Amino acid sequence: DIIKNIRSDASEYGRLMAYYRCAIMEVETKFNVLNVELSRGRESNPIETIKSRLKSPESIVEKLQRKNIPMDVASIEKNLFDIAGVRVICAFQEDIYMLADSLAKQDDVKVLEVKDYIKHPKDNGYRSLHLIVEIPIFLLNEKRFMKVEVQLRTIAMDFWASLEHKIRYKKNLQMYDEYSEISDRLKQCADQSAALDNMMDETHKMIIGLKKRNEEE
Ligand code: 0O2
């Protein structure tokens, strides 16, 4: 039934996905522009990399089922806000908040939701700043507002999340005796990555302080 519904809606589905691709390009451009602007006067760029993805049809179907949402294209657009995902990997934690603030201030960007898993990490140790934003895309004869999920992370947060995603996320491990040891180990890795981020931030601040002192002397 699911496949039948989506198939009968195939051209609508394809069109919606094309719009989300355009929205991803818009948001990526916004971050690339901010990266150029914020790099002036610094030795390094605040953004290390940007990784974007369109949610796969399998993942969309899984989420619709899990959340009891009807399987049609209109419901996908109305209820799922992470079809378009832009992940911004930053050098330092303070860059994350600076970039998020700059994006939020742009007058064509509407921030619909903020989840700060850095100030409030998930129980398993997951850290990242998530924003759901709505931005306009300009088509031939219309302007369309599209939602994009932006995830901002440091390299250390991305290292942990990428490996955890590979080895555990969404796998049903609860049934095994080793589950609690695996969770503890991953949580310890998350704590160590948070400690690394804090030490790097402090060291960065020390170096900036030294540079300032040098300029004043
Ligand atoms: P993928 O494969 O990255 O696309 P829900 O999506 O219903 O679970 P919600 O409220 O929409 O929940 O999402 P939330 O909490 O803002 O986070 C969703 C996304 O954040 C996930 O997308 C992951 O990318 C990332 N994420 C959240 N928690 C974890 C975690 O514990 N470990 C890792 N590695 N990533 C996490 P998807 O669509 O689930 O996955």
UniProtKB/TrEMBL annotation:
SUPFAM superfamilies: Nucleotidyltransferase. Pathway: Purine metabolism; ppGpp biosynthesis; ppGpp from GTP: step 1/2. Residues 52-175 form the RelA/SpoT domain. GO terms for biological process: guanosine tetraphosphate biosynthetic process. CDD domains: NT_Rel-Spo_like. InterPro entries: GTP_Pyrophosphokinase (IPR052366), NT_sf (IPR043519), RelA_SpoT (IPR007685). Pfam families: RelA_SpoT. This is RelA/SpoT domain-containing protein. It comes from [Bacteroides] pectinophilus ATCC 43243.
